[in-house]
Amino acid sequence: MRIGVITFPGSLDDRDAQRAVRLAGGEPVALWHGSHDLEGVDALILPGGFSYGDYLRCGAIASLSPIMTEVVDAANAGMPVLGICNGFQMLAEAHLLEGGLIRNDHGSFICRDQVLRVENASTAWTGEFEAGQEITIPLKNGEGGFIASEETLDRLEGEGRVAFRYVGVNPNGSLRDIAGITNAAGNVVGLMPHPEHAVEPGFGPDTAAAMRSGVDGLGFFTSVIRRTLVEA
């Protein structure tokens, strides 16, 4: 399975996402933001970083990059798309996902291992998990507070479109502890934490027991590969 990872000016985690795809058994395909060619990939990842220096708003300028025309069309046609951190912000700016992301409520950049609860295990990117399962993956952002109107929040909750929720502590002021959401079809998922940084044993949270694990993020990538192969 070929999974495209798009590089934007200021992307930081594109190579990490490519490595995660490779470790999951897929073939990563490097795509450039200025191209209109998705090169026949089966799924797409919009990686983390600081695209265009986060000018205007995080993800705002990147959402207008040439390749985003194809991303929007592909997503609307059912292609699996994952937005990680800055990629989540891009998906919100492109109106592929509802709500928005704002400055952390404490005003500071945060970098930590974060416990998440899987709320929706039926999306293209979460099928390897179980609903209610808790996973730990790194979180690093300065503008990760998820916001939406009460009406939108109620709809996301009612339709089961909250994909992940923060557990134990809300690190950035996200409304209703929301860490990630999905679209109605379940093919587009965005989250602020970084699953691509939790794909190898020995790189888990800094505790003796957890250090032997560190692969809670791998399920994102194996999920989409398995889903796509089953549907092929």
TrEMBL record:
Keywords: ATP-binding, Cytoplasm, Glutamine amidotransferase, Hydrolase, Ligase, Nucleotide-binding, Purine biosynthesis. Its EC number is 6.3.5.3, 3.5.1.2. Pathway: Purine metabolism; IMP biosynthesis via de novo pathway; 5-amino-1-(5-phospho-D-ribosyl)imidazole from N(2)-formyl-N(1)-(5-phospho-D-ribosyl)glycinamide: step 1/2. GO terms for biological process: 'de novo' IMP biosynthetic process. It is found in: Cytoplasm. Coiled coil: none annotated. It catalyses: N(2)-formyl-N(1)-(5-phospho-beta-D-ribosyl)glycinamide + L-glutamine + ATP + H2O = 2-formamido-N(1)-(5-O-phospho-beta-D-ribosyl)acetamidine + L-glutamate + ADP + phosphate + H(+); L-glutamine + H2O = L-glutamate + NH4(+). GO terms for cellular component: cytoplasm. Part of the FGAM synthase complex composed of 1 PurL, 1 PurQ and 2 PurS subunits. NCBIfam families: FGAM_synth_I, PRK03619.1. This is Phosphoribosylformylglycinamidine synthase subunit PurQ. It comes from Agromyces binzhouensis.
